[in-house]
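User:
I would dearly like some help making sense of a protein record. Take your time, and here it is.
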Amino acid sequence: MTNSESTQTWWADIPDSSETIAYFSMEFGIEESLPIYSGGLGVLAGDHLKAAAELGIPLVGVGLLYRGGYFHQGVDEAGRQTESYERVEPEALGLHREDVTVDVDLAGETISANVWRKDVGTGDGHIVPLYLLEVDWLTDALYSGDREHRIRQELLLGVGGVRALEALGVGATVFHMNEGHSAFLAIERIRSFVQHGMSTEAAMARVKASTVFTTHTPVPAGNEIFGTDLVARYVEPLAAEAGIDEAEFLALGDFGEDGAFGLTPMSLRLSAYANGVSALHGEVAREMWSSLDGVDTEIGHVTNGVHLGTWLDPDLTDLLAETGVSPSAPPENAGWEKAASIDRDALWRVHSASKLRLAELTHLDPERLTIGFARRFATYKRAALVYTDLERLLALPVQLVVAGKAHPQDNPGKDVMQEIIELSRQHSDRIVFLEDYDIGLAQTIIPGCDIWLNNPTRPLEASGTSGMKAAVNGVLNLSVLDGWWPEGYDPDVGWAIDGVSDEADLEQLYRLLEEQVVPAWQDRERWLEMMTASITKLSPRFSMHRAVIEYVERYYLPAARASQ
């Protein structure tokens, strides 16, 4: 596909071209005012919908409306994260309540969900509707409660989401599960086909042929797992209506751990198309899952992208337009090669303005080399690694901006955060921690930095889209070769850490800062050449337009044809 027009007509050879793709996700990051996302998974989902709208893809989103949203982060006197919740008022945020309700049985209790709609798009083209189900006491907050509360939420998403589309008259041909949280939608679809006269075997084949599953987690423990007793109590009646007995149903979620049911194994067994979110993550996912009994779907990869309309600094967008680049166009039409001739003085003025905005927020020095680290505080991301030898770090002419939230139940992640916050209080002129990281704060932090640091334990970073957001703004990546960076790295656009061990990575990180990053920073002409190369080379490769077009060509269109 070479232009938005051809992208809009790719669906035309499907017999009923009014049908569409249903994209299910537990969270969606559309804008900071709608707090139904926690981090990268949700922001990715929001970017997916925005790009689909601009490309004219016939797609709808399905999620949950959390009336308490995701938590606002604070920091107490001890430097410990605190959490508070603010009630979401959907009408005030421009959501429209649909004139339908959806019933779902939860272990003998029937609940009735409201359906809200948020239109996603630029306003001058195609609109992608996002449908959000809400049951006040159940959709109280994102990732809240115990395991029983979680399975109830995920049944509402999967089962209720399918029923909501039917009630709204949305003819979904392809179902895309963004992570395993919505996996129960497959059982509901099988049940629906069986209730309309299809055999269970035929229904299962039909559902599998039209389902796409994206996995984001490169460790088995990070995938959604429930006890078999809990799953049987909540889902066995639904499976029985689909003609699947309890033993057959539990086998769908089996991954070799007694008494445990995995939504990723079930999703893989009921999807004809599956992918990781970077080339390396695709390899890891195949090693994790391909040997499981009943998993015959080839796990490929579609490397994530970022929505440039959201994540490019507006002044940089204007400068690119003056240079002949159209960031909102599909990559083949955008003219990214012209970015190589961008006026270097103008680029530095744009970047300096971004740095000044960040400096005003942090009271740091806008002239100093600024390193950014902002992401979820999971321990594998090793947020404290760079501070291991503080004397060596602070001997460099650098300053650091840190932000991110730990899951409310992740005490080890909170411990790491507390350590960094204490350092920021002791060295406030060199280290700053910014509270309550969200989309809006990210839009200030990312373009205001010079270096984007990412040092996870390899290969535990599935993708790492914050680095992509930095790269398209000319912020140079200093990253472990994990997630997307093995595909993006070359010496013209940043620096690579091998990802061998804590000790080796730490030494390599310091040596790169001392011997390569700081000297490059001190050579303004060289730094601007690297910034230009980052924008020119990485923006088309890691745009969400490119990622969505890959999903269309490799998964959505084949799935739609197979489901006819």
Summary: The chain is about 45% helix and 20% strand. The chain has two domains: 4-305+546-562, 308-542. Confidence is low (pLDDT under 50) at residues 1-7.
